[in-house]
Amino acid sequence: MDKKSVGLSAETQAILAEIEQTGWFLEGQDIARFALAFAIRNAVADGTTKNADTRWAVGNFDASGKIRTVLAALYPQYDEPVRLMEHLVNEGLQLLSTRMRSGAIGPGDLMS
What we know:
- By secondary structure, the chain is mainly alpha-helical.
- Helices cover 56% and strands 8% of the residues.
- The chain has a two-stranded antiparallel sheet with strand order 1-2.
- Helix 1 crosses helix 5 (81-101), helix 2 crosses helix 5 and helix 4 (66-74) crosses helix 5 (81-101).
- The longest helix is centred in the C-terminal third of the chain and has 21 residues, at 81-101.
């Protein structure tokens, strides 16, 4: 059974807070959506995130359902889109943190 919310691990909550302090995004959900797209761009495989604490209701995070539609097209073998969304957000935040710590901070630097 799929989840009803998108959560973050303790580690990725800290990464999100660090990125929020840069002022690059208006709110945490914007960062999380960017992280999800960044994970997809970097060909992160499907999976799940363990020990994720609820952060956003899926109805708020993906109100239109368009993210779930895109995930169904890109990961047709995966039948739990919210768990996948959560996994990609967490993995994307990890990737962003690695890039930021490497000194690659400009938008062009973030793309592989």
